[in-house]
Amino acid sequence: MLHTQAFRRSGFWFKVAAAVVITAVADALIVSHQMVGALGPLALLWLGGVVLVRPGLRRDPRALLALAAAGLFALVLTDRPGLPAALLFGLMLGVAVLSARVKSGEPVWRWVQRLVVLGFGALFGPAFDLVRLGKAKRRTGVQIRVLSLFAMIAVPLAGGAIFLTLFASANPVIQQAFEQVRLPRLAPDFGVHVIFWGLMLAAAGATFRPRWRRRLIDLPSLRSSGAPGPAAATITLSLVVFNAVFALQNGLDLVFLWSGAPLPEGVTLAEYAHRGAWPLIVTALLAAAFVLIALRPGSETARRPIVRWLVTLWVGQNLLLVASSILRTADYVDAYGLTRFRLAAMIWMGLVAIGLALICWRLLKDRDGHWLIDANVKALLAVLAVVSVVDLSAITAAWNVRHAREVDGSGAALDLGYLRGLGAPALVSLIELERTTDDPGLRDRLAAVRVDMVRLLERQQADIRSHTWRDARRLAKVRSLLASRPLAPPRAGDRRFDGSIAPPRPPVLSPPVAAPLTNPAGV
Predict the structure, then answer these.
(1) Which residues of the chain have pLDDT under 70?
(2) Long-range CB contact pairs, 167-172, < 8 A, 24+
(3) Would you say 498 and 421 are in contact if contact means Cβ atoms under 8 Å apart?
(4) Per-residue pLDDT tens over the stretch 99-114
(5) What angle do CA 431, 436, 439 make, to 5 degrees?
(6) Crossing angle for the helix pair 369-389 and 340-365, to the nearest 10 degrees
(7) pLDDT of res. 128
(8) What does the alpha-carbon distance between residue 60 and residue 57 come to, in Å, rounded to a whole number?
């Protein structure tokens, strides 16, 4: 018994020491030196600490799989620090530390609750521990109460401070003694370090000693066994009306968007495409909500053949609506160029289409709500995993450069200001355009932008705080391109952000000198 208690105490202090080491390293790298590229190595250190202090995880296959996934996202953070990779690393680490106590086949809905408890436990768990400590009893029978201890020392401290203050105002010797006391000066960022230490210790402690809750909230049942009646007739009539209205919108999209028929006078294709993209996505989401609420699997209404046929047709029309929204965004991109936001919008539209298809499949195959949530979360995690690895800025820059060449053969219509704002990911595409364009004015603008961007990238990679492996490889490729075929420097002169020559500044006029006053009286 004593041996078991001693082992538990040693394991507890081992976890405390590991959390302190991880927090100290994180504070030195992230807060003190502001090393963004250190997020990946820090994540690997954290992962190693979990494996070291929680040896039982190495015997759980699900925990090993989650730890391996967390390790992959830690490597992604090492190569390219970003929010998606950091979120996925934290998610996989949380799943790993909870897997040993979760039964196999647990649905995502219950996993989400356990992860929320883990997160709240990391923030507020230490306060709960202090309350429990105040109610704990020692082996000697003496009860420890935090509030009682505070009350015991509060009166002597407050009273002593008041009397010393009065004596200092009455006795100059005591006053001079107080004036000679110099407290140590705190660094300006001392408060930031304290807050970071508190948050990081809580987060590390939550993974070393995760909070647990047995009682969870069950998913509300979305099944019904009511007999057909007015509700069934209302739903059937609603589906007929909705299909007719959606057929009108989809018919117009098929005529003007998909077949390329001329639009009415005064309406451009870009305007037609841009105005309809987001309202149609909202329409599809409302349709999905209607199917989820009104047509519950297992109900008599959902089993009626006419209702199932109308729902399938309506979901198919919604999928066509989402496809038209993607096409509208693509047409708008063709007219005005690709941006990161427009690319992300098309990815989001694809997720909406997947969700609609899963809702229809759930209704037809009589699946429960857990199946629908699990399938959608898996699709979302897959998209986030791809986005954490793929550089959307580089894709955006490469597409804009290639599309600008196709429009006028030289790329003169390119928005260099936006591409420069993308940063280092756009540099390789801009250099390749500079090497191939036949427009001397565009080549000069590209050269001005290239020189500034290369200098900035070299400064970033020379500074350990902003150094990343992906940008280091990108800089090596840029140097290789410039070495294989040197490019001409830009012309002299002040430049705007997009590389164009700024107009000369107006000369600074000196204020007029006032004429001396004369004395008409001759005095």
Answers:
(1) 1-10, 125-152, 182-187, 212-214, 219-230, 269-270, 273-277, 298, 406-412, 508-523
(2) none
(3) no
(4) 888 888 888 888 888 8
(5) 105
(6) 160
(7) 66
(8) 5
